[in-house]
Write a structure and sequence with these properties.
The protein is mostly beta strands. The protein contains no helices and four strands. The model has no long low-confidence stretch (mean pLDDT 75).
Length: 58
């Protein structure tokens, strides 16, 4: 079933987003761009959710 967004936004709305999380596998400092991928252990999705009381203006 497809997700539908509420219309119009109620005074208290759910705010959903999905982000990419990068898990760092080893310590480092002043790492050059060329070696940055050597420090990444894994990738995952991160789904924060918040409740807002004001509408978003873009």
């Amino acid at each position: 079933m497809p997700l539908a967004s509420p219309a119009p936004c109620s005074p208290r709305c759910n705010d959903h987003e999905v982000e990419l999380a990068v898990i760092i596998g080893k310590r480092g400092n002043n790492i050059p761009k060329e070696k940055a991928l050597e420090y990444i252990c894994a990738y995952s999705t991160f789904r924060p959710m918040s409740f807002t009381t004001l509408p978003h203006f873009t």
